[in-house]
């Protein structure tokens, strides 16, 4: 068992990000077994869950004429327009059925504000509206974080970078993640994580 000041953060291991889902990440379901094993080895486990209203501004369908994966400018910056995914209460928003959800101490839902997307587990995409995760972890005495989940180049990377900026020791287990790799996003995320001091391991 890992020390009590270390936490495992499992990012968005949900049906819509797995094969057959609305925003499927190739091989997304292949990491479930390893993630379950990692959860058994950590005293503190947090799961994040994308939880979007149907009218979410990040959905291409809510912008007439816009193509999925195109990019628009929002008040908080550039926004990829995604296929509608992880809609509140839908099967796609549920965790992968093989994930040992009962092992989690906390399930943090994000992306529930219709007007702003939320990649990071710590902040909305304006980089200032907090989710509350930092306070929870500090109250638990956590100092080191290990990140796994989906997708490596978006929600995992943004979460890891924010965690490093907040002063945590941060490791991303890339073998327990899968990426979308949209127009070079995987390489860019790797560079951003390295620059932030995030340790990247297999």
List keywords for this structure.
two-stranded antiparallel sheet, alpha/beta, 8 strands, 6-stranded parallel beta sheet, single chain
Architecture overview:
The chain is of the alpha/beta class and 202 residues long. The chain is built from four helices and eight strands; from the N terminus they run βαββββαβαβαβ. The protein has helices at residues 32-40, 133-139, 152-165, 185-196, and strands at residues 6-11, 44-50, 71-74, 77-80, 106-110, 144-150, 169-178, 199-201. The strands form two sheets. A six-stranded parallel beta sheet has the order 5-2-1-6-7-8. The longest helix has 14 residues, at 152-165. The two termini are 19 Å apart.
List strands and helices in order, with pairings:
Elements: E1 6-11, H1 32-40, E2 44-50, E3 71-74, E4 77-80, E5 106-110, H2 133-139, E6 144-150, H3 152-165, E7 169-178, H4 185-196, E8 199-201
Parallel strand pairs: 1-2, 1-6, 2-5, 6-7, 7-8
Antiparallel strand pairs: 3-4
Helix pairs in contact: 3-4
């Amino acid at each position: 068992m890992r020390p009590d000041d270390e936490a495992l953060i499992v990012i968005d291991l949900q049906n819509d990000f797995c094969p057959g889902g609305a925003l499927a990440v190739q091989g997304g379901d292949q990491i479930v077994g390893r993630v379950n094993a990692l959860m058994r080895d950590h005293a503190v486990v947090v799961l994040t869950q994308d939880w979007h209203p149907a009218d979410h501004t990040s959905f291409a369908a809510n912008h007439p004429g816009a193509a999925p994966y195109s990019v628009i400018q929002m008040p908080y910056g550039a926004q990829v327009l995604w296929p509608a995914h992880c809609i509140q209460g839908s099967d796609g928003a549920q965790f992968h059925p093989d994930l040992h959800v009962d092992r989690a101490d906390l399930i943090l839902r994000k992306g529930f504000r219709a007007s702003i997307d939320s990649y990071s587990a710590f902040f909305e995409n304006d980089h200032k509206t907090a989710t509350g995760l930092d306070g929870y972890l500090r109250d638990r005495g956590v100092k080191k974080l290990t990140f796994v989940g989906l997708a490596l180049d978006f929600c995992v990377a943004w979460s890891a970078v924010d965690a490093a900026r907040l002063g945590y020791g941060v490791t991303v287990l890339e073998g327990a993640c899968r990426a979308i790799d949209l127009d070079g996003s995987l390489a860019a995320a790797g560079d951003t994580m390295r620059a932030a001091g995030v340790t990247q391991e297999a």
